[in-house]
Amino acid sequence: MTGKRFGRVLAIVLALTMLAGMVPAFAAGETAESVYVNGNIYTMDDDNPHATAMAIRGDKLLYVGDKAGAEAYYISGVTKVVDLQGQTVLPGLIEGHMHVPNLGQSMLMIDAFWKPKEVILQAVKEAAEAAQPGEWIQGRGWMNTVWADDSFPTKEELDAVAPNNPVSLQRADAHMFWFNSMALDMAGITKDTPNPQSPGRRDPED
């Protein structure tokens, strides 16, 4: 073997040796800690909205696709494989029912979320004292089911702390409002006003 030919062979051998050393490291880097298969995975990708398998390593998704792809490239002897048995997987960091405009509106209102009734009434009183007569007082977040007395609040309770301002407080679930007398008068609502045709209703005792 000539010196030139020997040099070429040696270079090839060295290159193959280096590649062989790199393969395990590459494979280890791609091996998933956990793989989920046989699922209904909603991807939020309009072109490929559903997948059946996904591979995860740490906090990173390595793969989203079918079971064959996950098994071929991401499963090793230490990978935890979970059979979803057709269960649905949804992206966990996507809020599916958030009313974004309400977030901004809430910053301009009385924060009544999960607060005791007495705390809410005090906040209304302070807002009314700082407001001009006739200026609306608005708030959001009350929930009577967390109060010591879980009965529905009354307009008289708001009248006592804000007699000269219309008050509108939305319940946390956004399905009910707590008004004072001035607000009801401005809306033309009395105890004789018929309930609307929609599922909405007024408190028959108010």
TrEMBL record:
One of its GO terms (molecular function) is hydrolase activity, acting on carbon-nitrogen (but not peptide) bonds. Residues 1-27 form the signal peptide. InterPro entries: Amidohydro_3 (IPR013108), Metal-dep_hydrolase_composite (IPR011059). SUPFAM superfamilies: Composite domain of metallo-dependent hydrolases. Residues 80-201 form the Amidohydrolase domain. Coiled coil: none annotated. Keywords: Signal. This is Exoenzymes regulatory protein AepA. It comes from Intestinimonas butyriciproducens.
